Amino acid sequence: MVAVANRTPTPAELSCAGPSNSCSLANFFVGDPDLKQVVSRTFEAGLRGSIPVFEKGRLRYSLALYRSDLDDDIAFINSPVQGRAFFANIGSTRRQGLDAELRLTTDRWLAYINYSFIDATFQNTFVEASGNNPAADLNGNITVQAGSRLPSIPAHQLKVGATYKVTANWTLGAPATVFAGVRITF
Known about the structure:
Elements: E1 2-7, H1 11-15, E2 38-54, E3 57-71, E4 74-78, E5 85-89, E6 93-105, E7 109-122, E8 126-129, E9 141-144, E10 156-165, E11 171-180
Antiparallel strand pairs: 1-2, 2-3, 3-6, 4-5, 6-7, 7-10, 8-9, 10-11
């Protein structure tokens, strides 16, 4: 499957779109500054199916590989003014990876395991103010290099769980989610 989509900047992004229009809270709106639409191109391929495993039992499986390239992505950039930030087009970003799932169902049981790997990276180099960052240069800026991971997107995600239907009206369940490889800052 191949898809192309785009989005226009949100009112909050338009309100704080540049060093001279930085804000501490995106809660007021001004005229539209020059932010470009974000355009994404996505490719996805995969397979899914199910097989009977025992009487009234079914094992479902799925595997998907994907890649989304976003042009003119928008990020909330630190302003040189302490405590303020603004939205700006930062070039291209990429999210690619895989999703895999196994799900066992019976008349009373449901058990599942899902795994996702996400490689989310900046595709362009850009500079932003970050005076409190120990890696900042003498001007208080950091350079985000092409290939750096996008912050706050976990590289690995695992979900496991099971439910048991005690009666027609009562179900007990135990889900768990684990994240790894989350980067909070650049």
